[in-house]
Amino acid sequence: MTEEKSPWVGDQVYDADAGREGVISDVKNGTYVLREVDSWARTWTAPSAEKLTVTVPRTERIKRERET
Question: What's this model's pTM, rounded to 2 decimal places?
Answer without folding.
Answer: 0.88
